[in-house]
Design a protein that fits this description.
Length: 67
């Protein structure tokens, strides 16, 4: 998650770090969240209500956050 935070800061995107329960850390940008994917490879990007198993790369997550 540190790479995501550094990328967001470098892009000038403000965010809030939140504990989503247990030891799960999430980054909130507006109503969207970035969470490490359960597989340990990649990240989830979306609302907490979204269902899906999509895994994005760091570069994809930063591009989604910019948009």
């Amino acid at each position: 998650m540190e790479q995501v935070k550094k990328g967001l800061a470098k892009a000038g995107i403000s965010y809030v770090t939140e504990c989503l329960g247990g030891n799960i850390e999430g980054i909130r940008i507006g109503n969207m969240y970035i969470v490490e994917h359960g597989s340990g490879e990649g990240y989830y990007f979306g609302t907490l209500d979204d269902e899906g198993d999509t895994s994005f790369t760091l570069e994809q997550v930063l591009e989604l956050a910019k948009n």
